[in-house]
Design goal:
This protein has four helices and 26 strands. It is α/β, with parallel strands linked by helices. Among the domains are: 36 residues; 174 residues, 24 nucleotide stem-loop, u2 snrnp hairpin iv. U2 a', Chain A. The chain has an 18-stranded parallel beta sheet that branches. The protein has a six-stranded parallel beta sheet with strand order 12-15-18-20-22-24, with no helix packed on it. Helix 3 links the parallel strand 25 and strand 26. The radius of gyration is 31 Å and the shape is elongated.
Length: 401
């Protein structure tokens, strides 16, 4: 019995010694983690207390997403000043913030991206001036008090798309002037006070698509003159003050469609280096556009050609190199166009031909080569123009009134 009791005491001593040793190891590991300053995972901070408590731990790295999220009472981020690197940074609907002071030491953002969205009282983001790269998307959306984004002036690359949207008082995007590449879509829309996009003048590669839409004071897009190719589509629509699209004069190819429409003050289109469009070319409802320059090198359109409702457009002479349209060709509602001679080199239309409501159109001889060689795959529709010859009339040379 004494021997059994002695054995139990011995086993208990071994267990207690092992337990203490394990606790010491766990404590040591935790201390080492604190020394390294790494927070593993993502953290969402939705109150000032949560911000301050997290900041008190002096982390330098967050391996996941750092979110300042719907924090109505959050007014101060200074307690987060130890953080140097995050995988992603999100400032969302934190209406108490007027600046991002406290995030000054962050220099790296990874694949989680940078999203600064829906912050009603945010006036500047200068505290982000040490960030040099964003590994994924960069979004500045619906910050109605933000007048500039100069805090991003040291960012050189964006790993995914770039979006500047619905920032009512944003005057310029000069803070993006060091970005040379993105790896996705460029979208700038609904910025009521934006006058130019010159801040993108160093952007030259990785742009998969462009959407410039509903920026009421935007006068030109000269900041895009470094872009030579776009894999997807370009949409430049409903910019009521836009006067010139010469900023894309170095563009050589577009993989998708090109749409230019509802720009009421647009007088100049210049795509002088463009030779191919993979999708549709649509130039519609630009009431001040009298002539477009710089489409003279365009030889193929992979989709449809739509030239519609351009009330001041008086000729199509810059399309003289166009050889092939895979889809339909529709020219309608252009009251001042008199001739289609620009299409003398057009050899094939893969779809239908529709020409209507061009009040001054009297010369359709530019279609003779196309029709004589039976290279219109679809239907021929012509009506409500000043002169409306049949398909056979054009083939026979009765094409000019």
């Amino acid at each position: 019995m004494k021997k059994q009791t002695l054995n139990i005491i011995l086993l208990l001593a071994i267990y207690l010694n092992y337990s203490c040793s394990s606790d010491d190891e766990i404590q040591q590991q935790n201390e080492e983690a604190n020394i390294e300053g790494v927070y593993n995972g993502s953290i969402r901070l939705s109150s000032q207390l949560a911000v301050d408590n997290f900041g008190a731990k002096n982390y330098t790295t967050v391996t996941g997403q750092l979110s300042i999220y719907v924090g109505i009472d959050i007014t101060d981020l200074n307690s987060l000043s130890s953080i140097v690197s995050v995988n992603g940074l999100e400032i969302l609907s934190s209406h108490g913030l007027t600046n991002l002071n406290g995030l000054d030491n962050i220099n790296s953002i990874g694949e989680g991206g940078l999203n600064i969205d829906y912050n009603n009282n945010l006036t500047n983001i200068d505290a982000l001036s040490n960030i040099t790269s964003v590994g994924s998307n960069l979004s500045i959306t619906e910050n109605p008090s933000l007048t500039n984004i100069n805090g991003l002036s040291n960012v050189t690359t964006v790993g995914f798309w770039l979006r500047i949207k619905r920032n009512e008082t944003l005057l310029n995007i000069d803070g993006l002037n060091n970005i040379t590449s993105i790896n996705g879509h460029l979208r700038i829309d609904n910025n009521d006070s934006l006058v130019n996009i010159d801040g993108l003048s160093n952007l030259s590669s990785g742009v998969s698509g462009i959407d410039i839409t509903i920026n009421d004071l935007l006068i030109d897009i000269d900041g895009l003159n470094g872009i030579s190719s776009v894999d997807e589509s370009i949409s430049i629509n409903t910019n009521s003050s836009l006067e010139s699209i010469s900023g894309l004069s170095n563009l050589i190819s577009i993989g998708g469609y090109l749409s230019v429409g509802l720009n009421s003050n647009l007088t100049l289109i210049d795509f002088s280096s463009l030779n191919s469009i993979g999708g549709d070319l649509s130039i519609t409802n630009n009431n001040s556009l009298a002539i477009f320059y710089g489409l003279n090198n365009l030889n193929s359109i992979g989709g449809n050609l739509n030239i519609l409702q351009n009330n001041s457009l008086n000729n199509l002479n810059q399309l003289t190199s166009l050889n092939n349209i895979d889809g339909n060709m529709k020219i309608s509602g252009n009251s001042l166009i008199t001739s289609l001679n620009a299409f003398n080199s057009l050899s094939t239309i893969g779809g239908n031909l529709h020409i209507a409501y061009n009040d001054s159109l009297t010369n359709l001889c530019g279609l003779q080569n196309l029709l004589s060689n039976n290279n219109l795959a679809g239907t021929y529709t012509l009506y409500a123009n000043s002169f409306n010859p049949t398909q056979q009339d054009i083939i026979d040379g009765n094409c000019n009134n």
